[in-house]
Amino acid sequence: MYRLLIFILFFQTLCALDVNEEIPYNELLSHTEIYIDHTQSETMDTIGNKTFKANDEYILGFGYSPKFDVWIKIYLTNISDKPVKKIIEYENPLTSYITFYEADTKKLLLVDGLLNTNIDRSSIHPNFEIILQPKEQKTIYLKAYSDITTLIIKLNLWNPETFHAKEIRYQVVLALFFGAMGLIVLYNFIIFLSTREKSYLYYVLAFIGIIIYYLLYKGVANLYIISPVTMSNIIEYSAFIVAIPVFFLALFTQSILDLKQYPYINRTLNYYLVIFPLLTIIVYIFDFNQYRSFFSVLLLFMLMIITFYALLNNNRQAKFIMAGWLVFFTSGLFMFLSSHGIYDIFDTYPHYTEFSLLIEAIAFSLSLADKIKQLQQSKILLEEKKLLLKELTHRVNNSLQTIISFIQLQKDEINHKGSQLVLQNIENKVFAINDLYALLNTTDNISSVNANDFFFSIITNIRKSFYKPKVTVKLDTTAELNSDDAVYCGLILNETLTNSYQHAFNDTNKGEITVSLHKKKGIYYFNIKDNGIGYNTKGATDSLGMTIIETLAIIQLEGKLNIDTTDGLETSIIWKDNG
Prior knowledge:
Number of strands: 20
Shape: rod-shaped
Radius of gyration: 41 Å
Oligomer: single chain
């Protein structure tokens, strides 16, 4: 028994951490012992009988909501000849419940944790102060448990002055970080209000979600913003807190990279974005906390691969997005390595995560600014093209007017009635095209034409060419035509009206011609009908006028042509809007 006591004392001496006022900081966890309570039934009355194992890791990670308690035994020895005051810091604000006890007296030293409703501290991380008398050795127990959040344990031992100085610096850096992130988000939101570009909206929503997540992750929210009771309620929805910013990052990436130009990739991403909320809901309903981040991380990897593909395909915005993703993923990798005790970059660069998020926000914001710049340049080029096209239209209009003048001069010099009629028909055809260009000159939108104005101009020219005051023309149209279809329809109307005026009515008969054009569900219905004498369609199929109508209706408009001579002449054309 004596030997066993000697061994225990010797083993405790090996694990004990020697402290004095001269050492401002000690990493504590690697000088402790650990016991895993899988039954979650141990208390201070029973834990002293359990066998602890020596721990040499400076950080311990147990994943999301492990189903056990972790007990840590801490040995501290004051090697100086005067009392020493120290602060023990538990460097993780996300652990659900932590409790510190003094081993000898079983005194409760600290009750804290994310879900503890009685937090009373001004520091980000849980901590408490202890005093070691000269040459005193003190044993302290830590009990840690997480039922929703991650269980990551890291312990530090500080001199009070050093701890408070460190805490002030840390909180100032966090304040600057959240302030910078907030300003970037506000700036992009103001731009969204002025541009209504949806990429900006997705950016704003994504980074608002990231800010909220990071406020919770760093323990700032429950310390300064929300009460511990509210925090315990919010944390129940942690699956959504993780998923929402990732979801909007995906929409932002899809929009800024214009993934519609990559149909297969865009379709695959859309499928995942549909099932992603469903998977999140399943994780929440069935309490699969260990898989809470899995689908979000999978989506982030998918977005990084998509961005890399876009970069290879010379997507201009992809270089900004890729830079942001690389910094973001290095941060995630370092957090993983740190939580598993493999490599802790945060000892050297404690604010690398904040730096990486800020760089990502700036990179993504630059991609938005570059996209807006490209859109503005495209808009300027488009305006220049419109001006050039208008100038070209104006010149074509002048040229057609010159041609019409030549035809009129030629017509005036010819006395042969048949020749005059031929020239008149040619003049009307040129007038129809000229009217279209004249109409395009008066509108800002040169891609479409108001059919009512265009047809009215053609009808007016035809009525002037053939003086038959007893023939009336009724026009009924509510549709607009693209400029190509307008040319074909104008020529068809000109040819049909000319035929009606020449052959359907004599000089004494009253007559009526109706012209209608309507569009229903992407289908145009063009109808020209007169109540004249009609004609024999079999004998007229070889005429030039009918050839022109058939060519324009069937080949150019790709429509269906129907001619009915039951009661006068009715020409009907149906075609799809290909504009």
